[in-house]
Amino acid sequence: MEITKALITAAGKHQRTLPLQTLVDRDGASKTALAIILEEILRAGIERIGIVISPGDEAAYRAAAGPHAARLTFIEQSAALGYAHAIHCAAEFCENDAFLLLVGDHLYLSTTELGCARQLVEIARAEACSVSAVQSTHESKLPYYGAVGGQLVHAARRLYQVEAVLEKPTPTEAEQKLVVPGLRAGYYLCFFGMHVLTPAVHRHLADLFAGPEPVHFRSALAALASQERYLAAELAGRRYDFGVKYGLLNAQLALALSGTDRDEVLRHMVELLATNSR
Amino acid sequence: MDPGLIPLITSQDPAVRNASLDASCLPLACAQLLQEAAALDHFRRHQDNLYDRVRALFFLAALHRFHLPSRPELPPGGHIPFRGYEQLLHRRFEEAIDTFLATQATSGPSDALSSALAAAYHRLAFQTLADQVRRSVRTVRGNQWMFRMGHPKDQPLRLRPELLTPGPDGSFPILRERTPVRMDLTHSAWSDIFFLGMDFPEGARVLNVSVDLGVHGRDSSTAPPVSAWLRVIEEPVLRLVSVDLAARADISNLSEVFDFAKDYLGLLKAAVIASGLVPPGIEGSGASLADLLAEMLGPNRGLELVSSVNDIPKGSRLAVSTNLLAALIGVCMRATGQAESLTGPLQENERRLILARALLGEWIGGSGGGWQDSGGVWPGIKLIEGTPSQPGDPEHGISRGRLMPKHHVFTRQEIPDRSRQRLQDSLVLVHGGMAQNVGPILEMVTEKYLLRSAPEWAARQEALGFLDQIVSALGEGDIPAVGHLTTRNFEGPIQTIIPWASTHYTERLIEQVRAEFGDDFHGFWMLGGMSGGGMGFMFHPARKAEAQERLQSIMSATKRDLQHALPFAMEPVVYDFSINEVGSCADLLEGPDALMPSGYFALTIPELVRQDRRTLSAQRRAELDKFGAACRTRPELRGMVQTLFDALLPRSKSQAAAHENLAALLAENGFDATQHELIRADLRDGRIGLAQNRLPPNASIADVSPQDIVDLSRPSSAHPSLRARGEAALRNGTIAVVTLAAGAGSRWTQGAGVVKALHPFAKLGGRHRTFLETHLAKSRRRSQQFLAPLPHVFTTSFLTHAPTQDFLAQRVHYQGPLLLSPGKSVGLRMVPTERDLRFAWEEMPQQRLDEQQQKVRDSLRSALIGWATSTGEASDYTDNLPLQCLHPVGHWYEVANLLRNGTLAELLRQRPQLQTLLLHNIDTLGADVDPTLLGQHLSSGAALTFEVITRRLEDRGGGLARVNGRPRLVEGLAMPREEDEFALTYYNTLTTWIDLDQLLAAFALSRADFLPGADASEKITAAIRSLASRMPTYLTLKDVKKRWGHGQEDIFPVTQFEKLWGDMSALPEINSRFLVVPRARGQQLKDQAQLDGWLRDGSAAHVASLCTWS
After folding, report:
1. Taking CB atoms and an 8 Å cutoff, what residues of chain B touch A144?
2. Does the residue B576 lie in any domain?
3. Is residue A179 less than 8 Å (CB to CB) from chain B?
4. Across the interface, do B337 and A141 touch by the CB < 8 Å criterion?
5. Do B441 and B502 belong together in one domain?
6. Identity of the residue in A141, A175, A186 whose CB atom sits nearest the CB atom of B142
7. Which of B158, B338, B353 is facing A143, going by the closest CB pair?
C-alpha cells in the first residue's frame, strides 16, 4: 500500500492558532509547531501535505510553515462543523489514496531513531490496511480522547485488531466495550492523534453525511472496522497535546529534555525549584 | 452412588443432586451422622467450587440443628467454649468452627456444641454467599472502574453540557427521571434471590409488570410513582433532598456521603456513589468533595439531587425503594453521559447498566433488594430469567449462573392489548397496612433450596409450572385463569415452602372477599416476599369499582379488629393502577418549566423566607419567582398556599393533646412519680446503669452440681408415683395456671407494640392461633383429661389489658375459671444516657454485621447517641404515641399484682382448695400442667420449683448457677463477666411451680388476707413494697418503634427498669428447687426467625399434641 499524502486538521475553533506557536525543537532551533509537524511527516517519506484550515488563516499558516510552505495544499472548512466534516472537506485532496492523518495541536516525540509518523506509515505499508496509532491511557483521561477496543494480534509489535471505536467514552462504557487483554486494569487504547487510513473512510464519511444524523468521525472508523481490516498500533513514542492547559509547556519541556539543550534546561529547572523552595 | 451425603452435592445426576437431605439422614444413627459431618467438613475445606462449599455448609448446619439433636444417643447439655462464641460474634466463623470442633474432639459431642456448630456453619454459609454476590457486583463490567478511582483528579465523568448552561434567568435546567414500580405476577417461589439465580439459573424466573399508581379516591390519575430530579447549583456542595421523607442536607464533605444512616438520605447517597459521581473507590481518601465536583462541573458548582415518591407507603411490596434508587442512578448516569439517552426512554443496554448499578447501590446501602426489583426500569410485562454463566463472565467457574438476569419484554403479539386491558380492569391492588421485614423469609428460602427438602423442592418445580401457565393465560386473554393460578400459587407452593408468607390478616381478607363476591372473585395475588402489605385481588371487571370500595372497608375493619395482634404500620390503602408501557423515562425541564416537585418547595421555602432575600443567590431568587408564578397559573399547584402556610406555622395542638393523654395514662396505671425521679437522679449520677446491673466482680459464679437439680428431661426418668400425685392434684382442682401476658413482643415485632398474647403466630390445628389460644388449649386438654376445669389467669399490663379482655370476650370459650390480672405498676421510659448506649454497643459482646451493614449500623448508632445527648440524657421519653412511652416494670410485679389487684382473692373464692400455681411466660409454648412435674414439685415440698433446660447457643440471658456457693437463677444482666454464662449447663425457662402458702409467707401474708371482707389491701401493698425493696432493679435498653409519614418507622433505644421473677430464687428464706425439663417444654419462641426451625424440629407438632382446640 502506497502512502503519499498526509492531512493535517487545524480548523477547530480552539485549535486555529495552536500550530502557529513557536517552540524550540530538539536541535535547539526555534520553529513553529506547524513546522515541527511538517518535518515529522517529511521524515516519514510523504511529500504531499493537505491542511484543513478556517477561512482566512492561509497566510498565517503559510508563514508558519516556513520552507515547507510550497508543499502544502490548503483546504478551507467553510464552517466549524466538527472534525469529521474537516476530513470530509479533504476528500478531493485525498482522492482514492491512503493517507496519513494528523491533528494540528499534537506533537509527537519518538523514543527511537524513527519518527512516530514513520513508524506508523511503515506498519500500514507492511500490513496493507488502515492503522491508528494508540497509546495506553489511564481511564481518568478518557474525557479527552477517542479510544478503541480489540484483540492483540502481534504482541512484540504491539498491534491490535480494532473491533470498537468510541469517542471520549465514559469509563463505564469503556469497561464494557473497550477492555483489551494485555493492558493494565483501568488503561485503554486511546488515539495518539495519528492515523493511516484507506480511502474507504471517505466513502463512509460521504454515506454518513448523506444521512440526517450528526456525523462523528468515530462512526466512520467504526464502519471501517466492521468492513475491512483495521489495526491499532502502540508506537515507540509519546504524544503531547498542546491544546490542553499547560499542554504547550509540557510539549516544550519534552522537546527540550530530549534534545541537545537538555542539560541547560535541566539546570534552569533546578534553579527555579531551588528559588521557589526558599 | 457412593455412600454418604457428599454425592448429594457433587453428583452430575440431577436425581441424586436434588435428593433431599432429610430423607438421606433418616436411616443414619448418631455415630454415622457424626461421621458424615466430619466428611462434609473435610469436603467443604478442600472444595474449590463455591456452591458445593455452600451446600456442604448448609448440610452441616442442618445436621447439627435438626438431625443430631433428634438422636437420643447425643448427650444433652454440654458447654460451649466462650472463645468460640466470641469468634462467632466477630464473624470469624472459620475459627469458631475450629474451636467448637476442637472441644467436640476433647469433650465429646453434645447438644450444646451442636447448636453452636449449627449456628457457625449457617452463618458461614450465608457469609460465603454474600461475599460472592458482593464480588460479582464489583466485577460486573462497567462497575469496576469506580473501585479504582481514588483521587478527584482521576474523576473521568463530566456533566453533559445541556445541564451546565443556565437559562436567561440564571437557573439551570432540571433533568427528571420518572420510573414506574414493579409488581410481580409470580416470582416462582422467591427465585429472584441472588443465591438462587446464581446457583439455579434455569429455575430463576419472574414475571413482572411495570405499573403507574395513584391512591384510589385521592389521585385523579395514575402516574409513575417515583421520580428523581437533578440540576446544577452555584455552590460546591451536594444538595440531597428527599421530598417523601422530608429530609434535606447540603453535603460539603466526602466522608458524609458515605455516612448512610446519619439521616434519611441514605438512598440518595447510595445513588450518588453507585452512579460514579462519588465513586466508592474514593471513600476514606481524605479528598475534597468540592475538588471532585469541580472536575465534573467546573469550579464552585455543585449538584442538587431530589427524590420524590408519590406518597406510596413503605412495605407496598412493589419495590418502591429499589426503583427509586434505580431512578436516582438513572438520572445521574444520564447527566454524566454514562447513558447515551439524555431524555426519553432508556435503551436496553442502558437499562442493564442501571440494573448493575442498582445492585451495587443496594449493596452499598446495606439493604438487599431482589434481582427483579429494578423491574420498573423496563416497560410493560416482562419475563426476567437467570442466565447460565459463560466463559469470559466474572462468574464463570464460580457459580452456575450470572449475577445479572436477562429481561424479555413481551410484545403485543405475545400478550395482546385486550389481555393487558382486562388485567387492569380486573385487578384491585391494595396495601394491607402491614409492614414486615422479609429478610428472615429470604434466608429460610435460600436454606431450604440448598437442602432440597422434598416437599419444598417439589413445590419449587410446581411454582415454575405456574409461571408458564400464567404466561399462556395472559397470551389468551384469560384473566380469570390468571387469578386462579396466582391463588393456587399462593396456597400451594408459596406456603409449602414458607408457611409464614401468609398471615391471619391476609386469610381473613380472602375469606371475606370470597364470601362477598363469590364467583366474581377470581383470585388472590401475593406481591413480593410476603403478604399483608401489597396484595392483589382479582374480580370480574363489572365489579371492580365495587370491589375497590368494599376492599377498603373490609381491610379497615379487619385491621381495626387485629391492630393489637399484628404489626400494622398504617391505614390500608386501595390503589388505582395502570400498566406502564414505557419504563423509566426522562425529560429536561427548561425555562419556566424548570421547577422541582411541589413537595420540594414545601420543604425548602419555610427556611428561605426566613432569610433576607438579598442573601439568596440569583438562582434561588429566580426559582422563587418562577415558583410563585407557577402557583398562580398551574392547577396542580392550587393547594400550595395552604401547604406552605401549614409548613410555616405548624399546628401544635395534637402534641399538647398527646401529653395530656400520657399524663392520664400514667395516673391510671399506678405510675410512681417519686420513684421515677429517684431513678432518674441515680441514672444521671451514674449510680445505676447497665454496668451497675451486674453482680460484684468478686462474686463466684459456678455451674451447679447434680445434687442441685432433679433431672426429668428424659421420659425414662419419670416416676409413676409422681405422676399419680400430680394427677390427683389436677382432679382435685388444687392447681391453676398463670400466664405472663403483659408484654408487647418487642423482639417479635422490633418494638411495634402489639399484644404478644394475641399475635396469631402460626397455624396449629389448621388455623392461625394466638399465643393466648394455644395456652388455653393446653389447659382445656388437661381440664377434659381430668374432668376438672383448670383455672387459667393471664396477667396483663396497660398495653395488653383492654385488647386481651376484648379478645377473650369475643373469641374464646373456656370452661374453667378464666381471669385477667391487670397490671398495677407502670414506668415511663427515658432517653438513654450516652454511657449506657456506649456500654451496650461498645463494651458488651455483640454480633458484628457484614462489612457494609456494619458501617451502616455504626453510623446509625452514632446518630442515636447524638439524639440521646441532644434530647437530654435520662429525660422522659415522650416523643411517641403515649402507649409507646410507658413500659411494664418486669414480671416480678406481675406476680405481686395477683395479690394486690384481687385476682388471687377471686381465684381462692372459686377454688378454695388451690395449692399450686404454674407460672410461665407467654412464649413458653410447651409449658403445661404435666402431672409428673407437678407431682415432683408437690413431693419436694418446695416453695418454688423453677424449670430449667440444657443450654444451647441461642439460650442467652442467664441461667442456673451456684452464686457464692448457693444455687440460684442469675439473670444475664447480672452476670459479672460475659463468659460466666458459658460455664452454666442450664438455662432458666422462667416456668415456675409455686406453692401458694409458702409464697404468701414470703410476703408475710396468708390466705386469710384474701378472704372476703379481710380488708387487707394496705397490708398487701406494704408487703409487696417490702419484698420489692429486696429485689434488685435492672436497667435495660429496649427498642421502641416510632411510626411516621407513610408507613415509615424509626427504632429508638430507650431506657426502662424492671424487677425480675427469677431473683426470688436468691432469697435465702425461700425453698427453691430446680427441675430439668425436656427442651420442647422449656424453649421460648421470642423471635419470628425461630418459627421455621420450631416447625421443622418437631416442636410445633409437640405443642399441637398438648392442645385441644375446642
Report:
1. none
2. yes
3. yes
4. no
5. yes
6. A175
7. B158
CB of A142 within 8 Å of a chain B CB? The answer is yes
Per DSSP, helices labelled H in B578-652 are 598-610, 618-633, 640-648
Contact state of A171 with B153 under an 8 Å Cβ cutoff:
no
Q: Quote the pTM value.
A: 0.82
Do A172 and B145 lie within an 8 Å CB cutoff?
yes
* CATH number of residue A190's parent domain: 3.90.550.10
Contact residues on chain B for A143, CB-CB shorter than 8 A = 156-158
Inside any domain, residue B862: no
- Portion 117-156 of B in contact with A at CB < 8 A: 141-146, 148-149, 153-156
- How far apart CA B206 and CA B372 sit, in angstroms, is 7
Q: Of B143, B144, B337, which has the smallest distance from its Cβ to A170's Cβ?
A: B337
- CA dihedral for B497, B503, B508, B509, sign (positive or negative): negative
pLDDT in tens, B355-409: 989 888 887 776 666 678 888 999 999 999 999 988 878 788 777 888 889 999 9
- Residue closest to A6 by CA, chosen among A115, A96, A101: A101
Nearest Cβ partner of B156 from A142, A176, A185? A142
In the 3-class helix/strand/coil scheme, how is B189-206 assigned residue by residue?
CCCCCHHHHHHCHHHCEE
Question: How many domains does one find in chain B?
Answer: 5
pLDDT in tens, B110-168: 999 999 999 999 989 888 887 777 777 788 888 889 988 888 988 999 999 999 999 88
**Alpha-carbon distance A225 to B682, whole Å?**
81
Q: Name chain A contacts of B143, Cβ cutoff 8 Å.
A: 172, 175
Question: In this predicted model, what pLDDT tens digit does every residue of B1051-1065 receive, in sequence order?
Answer: 889 999 888 999 999
Evaluate whether B268 touches B321 at the Cβ level (below 8 Å). no
Q: Which residues of B touch A175 (CB under 8 A)?
A: 141-145
Strand, coil or helix: B736: strand
Of B368, B371, B364, B150, which is closest to residue B261 (Cα–Cα)? B364
The model's pLDDT over B1032-1044, given as tens digits with 9 standing for 90+, comes to 888 888 888 887 7
Q: How many domains does chain A have?
A: 1
Same-domain pairing of B687 and B780: yes
How far is the CA of A64 from the CAs of A25, A48, A76, A192, in angstroms? 14, 17, 17, 23
Per-residue confidence band for B1, with pLDDT thresholds at 50, 70 and 90:
very low
CB atoms closer than 10 angstroms to residue B1042? 14
Going by the DSSP 8-state scheme, the letter that residue B381 receives in this structure is E
- Encode pLDDT of A24-62 as tens digits: 998 889 999 999 999 999 999 998 999 999 999 999 999
Chain B residues with beta carbon closer than 8 angstroms to that of A176: 141-142, 349, 353
